[in-house]
TrEMBL record:
Organism: Methanohalophilus euhalobius
Domain spans labelled Histidine kinase: 397-586
Membrane among keywords: yes
InterPro entries according to UniProt: HATPase_C_sf, HATPase_dom, His_kinase_dom, MASE3, PAS-like_dom_sf, PAS_4
SUPFAM superfamilies: ATPase domain of HSP90 chaperone/DNA topoisomerase II/histidine kinase, PYP-like sensor domain (PAS domain)
UniProt KW keywords: Membrane, Transmembrane, Transmembrane helix
Pfam families, sorted: HATPase_c, MASE3, PAS_4
Protein name: PAS domain-containing protein
Chain segments annotated as transmembrane: 12-28, 34-53, 65-86, 106-123, 135-153, 165-184, 196-217
Length: 594
């Protein structure tokens, strides 16, 4: 609909301008002087209107180009008015011939072209309207005095036509206007698209008009007529660029540079990875309305901007009171002092995570929170803390156990030297083997602590087949499923089977796999001595507490925390049963285990 309206307005403008030009052409055929006066008066009215708009808003205009050009067009209009009064046939300045209006024309066009260029160099600088006005007044006065005083070069000679000065001046003015057009293109981001387009076209038509004015011999000639039509079109475009736009979008036109800065900050607001939320206090600061959020907030909180704008913080984030976030908003709003908060944990039915906030008060009284979702960082810190704790514990155990093994080896060596009994060599071998086993366990344990390692599908029946031939006992397998794990899955079942053999004295191990709705359950049962009730709850860290069981079951527990879970219970009629729960593989087809 908007596009249709725009197209209609464009068509209407073209039709209107065509009708005006046609009417003026008809007038020119009968009365060229009237035609000339109407065209010049239209350009003068537009120029004065441009000045009045700018002058009345000079204290708030941020776009210095509009300010300087608008003031300048008053002085262009004043010379054009003199040019109109001095035109051949008007009879207002007796004693002067056609040279006078032609000189005034050239002076006005020089002034116009230079103003359009110089105004660009005032952009971004502190400019006083009074200084600009004074400068233009001095220049205009000098031009008018030099023309009426006979100091300005002749531009038209009766009976001969245009002088070389006039012709070359038109070319020079056209060149200056080309510079203005180039600068306008370079600075186009400081203008509204329509303003830029109209101003650019106005300069183009002015250039064409200047070239047309290099050909006429008579001031009533055809090329003079064409040149004035181009001037009419040029000032109509200035009228569209300045006057119409100032009525439709007054602040956007006058604050072009400010709007550009605002656009930069808006783009930054939208592109920031950190969440930015703007809040407006209501109920005397008891609550806050969500005034604006950037796309990062939508992503972090899982909300849509249109669903939360205008809603209260306490409704959108119900636990904002409990976390202290609402109190921090109030504190900043009341005191004006910014606050940085350490990561706080937020959780409600819709979202959960850690947030680190910087909260500020804006000049208009709104409060803005710039925050980072540090959930992943906090999880990593927690994992690192757990890793450090576990490594410290492992280090303690290894030093203790290997120290004991080395003491046993040293003692056995001393006894062997005295008694030469081979049983002490066997003791040494067992102690060495035990130490090597502990070191191997440490290597396996290191793999379990790789929190960043991604899980992949493993088919359990293929895992069990690789293990079946490693042990001298009966292993029965029932059921199959594909679960999410990594290479440490082999160590899980190796440790459970070895635990059944070494500590439970079992000779039969039954493995049953059952696929549940949410996970896969694996029961590893043996017919051994079982696990006493007194240590069932701490069996997975038994090695750490007694120094006898090694790290095997602790490795199992640590790894299963990544895969799912593990627990232990009695087997019927005797023995132990470990119940492992794995995450299901979401695919349907079986996969090869590595």
């Amino acid at each position: 609909m908007n596009q249709n309206n725009t197209d209609f307005r464009k068509d209407s403008d073209i039709i209107f301008l065509a009708v005006v030009i046609a009417g003026l052409y008809i007038i020119s055929l009968d009365n060229f002087l009237l035609f000339h006066s109407l065209v010049e008066l239209f350009s003068i009215v537009v120029a004065v209107a441009f000045f009045l708009i700018v002058w009345n808003r000079r204290n708030i205009i941020e776009n210095n180009y509009i300010l300087a050009a608008g003031i300048g067009y008053l002085f262009i209009a004043s010379i054009d008015l003199l040019h109109t009064f001095a035109y051949k046939g008007m009879g207002i300045f007796p004693g002067y011939d056609t040279n006078l209006p032609t000189q005034l024309w050239i002076a006005a066009r020089y002034l116009e072209s230079l103003i359009l260029v110089v105004s660009f160099f005032l952009m971004g600088k502190k400019v006083k309207a009074s200084n600009v006005t004074t400068t233009y007044l001095i220049i205009t006065t000098i031009l008018i005095v030099s023309i009426f005083g006979g100091y300005f070069p002749d531009s038209y000679i009766e009976g001969a036509g245009l002088t070389s000065f006039k012709i070359y001046s038109e070319y020079l003015i056209a060149s200056i206007l080309l510079v203005a057009l180039t600068l306008l293109h370079q600075k186009r981001s400081n203008f509204l698209p329509n303003v830029y387009k109209y101003l650019a076209l106005a300069i183009v038509f002015t250039i064409i008009g200047e070239l047309a004015f290099t050909f006429y011999i008579s001031v009533y000639g055809f090329s003079n007529l064409v040149g004035h039509f181009f001037k009419l079109i040029s000032f109509y475009l200035i009228y569209k660029a300045v006057i119409v736009t100032s009525l439709d979008k007054p602040y956007e036109m006058l604050f072009g540079e400010l709007n550009q800065e605002r656009k930069k900050y808006t783009d930054l607001f939208r592109a920031m990875k950190n969440g930015v939320a703007v809040f407006e206090p209501v109920d005397n600061g008891e609550d806050f309305l969500i005034k604006d959020i950037n796309p990062a907030v939508e992503k972090i909180e899982g909300v849509k901007k249109e669903d939360v704008i205008g809603k209260k913080v306490t409704l959108t984030f119900p636990n904002s009171r409990e976390t202290g976030f609402l109190d921090n908003l109030r504190k900043v709003w009341n005191t004006g002092d910014p606050i940085h908060t350490e990561p706080i944990h937020y959780c409600d039915s819709e979202r959960e995570g850690w947030r680190e906030n910087d909260i500020y008060k804006l000049a208009n009284g709104d409060v803005v929170a710039v925050y980072e979702d540090v959930t992943e960082k906090k999880n990593t810190q927690r994992q690192q803390a757990q890793l450090t704790k576990e490594l410290q514990t492992v280090n303690q155990i290894l030093r203790h156990d290997i120290s004991n093994d080395l003491s046993a080896i040293s003692m056995s060596v001393d006894i062997f030297r005295n008694k030469r009994d081979d049983k002490y060599l066997d003791m040494i071998k067992r102690a060495v083997k035990k130490s090597i086993s502990r070191i191997n366990e440490m290597g396996m344990f290191e793999k379990t602590l790789d929190f960043e390692k991604k899980l992949k599908p493993f088919q359990l029946s293929k895992v069990f087949e690789k293990l079946r031939g490693k042990y001298d006992l009966k292993i029965s397998i029932e059921g199959d499923a594909t679960v999410m794990a990594d290479e440490v899955i082999y160590s899980i079942f190796e440790n459970l089977i070895e635990n059944s053999i070494k500590h439970g004295k079992a000779d039969i191990v039954d493995i049953k796999v059952q696929e549940k709705e949410d996970d896969v359950e694996v029961r590893v049962s043996d017919n051994g001595t079982g696990i006493p009730d007194s240590i069932k709850k701490k069996v997975f860290d038994e090695g750490f507490s007694t120094g006898k069981g090694g790290m095997g079951l602790y490795i199992v527990k640590t790894t299963m925390n990544r895969y799912g879970s593990i627990q232990v219970e009695d087997n019927d009629p005797h023995g132990a049963c470990f119940i492992l729960r794995f995450k299901k593989y979401p695919g349907k087809e079986n996969v090869k285990s590595e």
